[in-house]
Amino acid sequence: xxxxxxxxxxxxxxxxxxxxxxxxxxxxxxxxxxxxxxxxxxxxxxxxxxxxxxxxxxxxxxxxxxxxxxxxxxxxxxxxxxxxxxxxxxxxxxxxxxxxxxxxxxxxxxxxxxxxxxxxxxxxxxxxxxxxxxxxxxxxxxxxxxxxxxxxxxxxxxxxxxxxxxxxxxxxxxxxxxxxxxxxxxxxxxxxxxxxxxxxxxxxxxx
Length: 207
Known about the structure:
Blueprint: E1 6-12, H1 17-27, E2 33-40, H2 46-53, E3 58-60, H3 69-82, E4 87-90, H4 99-104, E5 109-113, H5 125-132, E6 136-143, E7 153-160, H6 167-190, E8 194-197, E9 200-203
Parallel strand pairs: 1-2, 1-4, 2-3, 4-5
Antiparallel strand pairs: 5-6, 6-7, 8-9
Helix pairs in contact: 1-6
């Protein structure tokens, strides 16, 4: 009898490169989980195409079809629950979420952000780092709470800011580390090696 796999749901708004990293990790056995559903708030998101190319269930949930953010998030939550999702992954999902998702998946939503939080939250984190003159940037995987880029930090990887870096060059180097870090965190969670109390994350072993 085959063991039932841990089920994740992925929310994405854009190119879906982190989604692709997760797909690759699942297909090679680095992540022993199943992608139950991929959801996007953008009809033409490349992430949707990537999911379908790998025969994954993918759907576009149109924000314009709902009167407000809460109603929209309720629909997204319903889709995640219908696909028996146990952990929600934000992979370039560009929406702030509200209570329906947070209450349905407490400490079960993770995000990857292209900075060493709490430094440079929000949009254009790499640009913020360059403008500030930071010598080190990187990426952070964290649990999501009701505030933007604020939840308990799970893991971080630093990336040096090089002389002559542009927003694009720094972004590309950080993205490489995102693609490595996010699947490792997902696997640690699937194995029951991560827990959170308040803003403190406890982990068994290295990520």
